[in-house]
Design brief:
Length: 347
């Protein structure tokens, strides 16, 4: 029996790197050898244990291999596979749907009532190999690295989805709240779309990263009155668009408060509850407020082309790279916010 190395997260901040059988692709599936697999803040729900951020009963067992932002090489295909061949360089889309409902047919697999999430319900990319449905394999352009391809699946893809929905353009001033990996991706996308970007966080290291990525103005919300600064920068009007990538209730409220009348807001950061004042913050300002989640699978090719056409340096917000054997350090450092975007890589 051929084995491979894989990460599992039993909970309570325990990380194990184990030997397990290398999977065999079944009908309609392919075997992918990993080249890059990113850590996401949502993985911390598995790291801590208890209720996972997404997923069903399997995600609670602590035996599922995490990693929902993987990219690698197709090395074997199962029966019935068409359109994907050994040797293809691919990123793996994280949502697996039934394939027949209205949401799957429109490309929004994560809205399928039967959907499963790679890295939560089924084994993900933090292993030497993974098996995935062939339809989830999205081919990487020849000039795109595995690391960049992996980051298009969640960070860059979600921000592109958000900003396309908001119709961000060169006419806009955009405030981005929370400058972790998702917010950093937002800075890159917004600048590529021509917007003026105001980046807000409490950590100076993240504000410095935002400046390097092109943010026009940075605000430390622990030291400055964000709404006053934004009012001064926008002649008392407020920003045209705001994106919350933090999930912090205070930041979500600031996003609503800092947008001008008839502006728009995208909420990306996950949180269980937030108290808002709909009348003052939304209704009487005629705001458009969007919840943004996983981009539809068909949008990947559009996102990849946008990144290439605008020469967006996606890998610039990767702060650390680890081997799979360094998984314990990787998750600990990510949890302690020593790293921002961290990626497992294979030679």
């Amino acid at each position: 029996m051929t084995t491979m190395r894989a990460v599992i997260l039993p909970g309570n901040k325990e990380v194990q790197v184990i030997d397990k059988p290398r999977p065999v692709p079944g009908d309609g599936q392919v075997l992918v050898r990993m080249r890059a697999s990113a850590i996401c803040r949502s993985d911390m729900s598995l790291y801590y244990g208890g209720k996972p951020l997404v997923g069903g009963e399997a995600a609670k067992t602590g035996r599922i291999v995490p990693g929902h932002e993987p990219a690698g090489d197709v090395v074997e295909i199962g029966p019935g596979v068409r359109g994907v061949m050994p040797g293809d360089r691919v990123a793996v889309y994280l949502a697996i749907g039934c394939g027949h409902c209205r949401y799957c047919l429109s490309g929004y697999l994560s809205l399928c009532s039967e959907w499963k999430c790679v890295g939560f319900d089924v084994d993900g990319g933090n292993a030497d190999y993974m098996v995935v449905p062939a339809q989830n394999c999205l081919k990487l352009p020849d000039e795109m690295s595995y690391e960049t391809g992996a980051l298009l699946l969640d960070n860059m893809g979600t921000q592109y989805h958000a900003q396309k929905t908001l119709e961000v353009s060169g006419n806009d001033t955009v405030a981005i709240y929370g400058l972790g990996p998702m917010g950093s991706a937002g800075v890159l996308i917004a600048k590529a779309r021509g917007a003026r970007v105001i980046a807000i966080d409490v950590l100076e290291s993240r504000l410095e990263m935002a400046k390097e990525l092109g943010a026009d103005v940075t605000i430390n919300s622990a030291k400055e009155n964000v709404l006053e600064v934004i009012s001064n920068l926008t002649h008392g009007e407020g920003v045209d668009k705001a994106i919350d990538a933090s999930g912090n209730p205070s930041a979500q409220n600031m996003a609503l408060d800092s947008v001008r009348k008839m502006g728009s807001v995208a909420l990306i950061g996950e949180t269980s509850s937030t108290t808002i004042n709909p009348s003052e913050q939304m209704i009487r300002k005629l705001l458009k407020v969007y919840g943004i989640w996983i981009h539809p699978i068909w949008m990947y090719e559009e996102i990849a082309q946008f990144v290439l056409d605008h020469k967006i340096p996606v890998d610039r917000y990767i702060t650390h790279r680890f081997s799979i054997e360094q998984a314990a350090d990787a998750f600990r450092m990510f949890d302690e916010r020593i790293t921002d975007k961290a990626v497992f890589v294979w030679d």
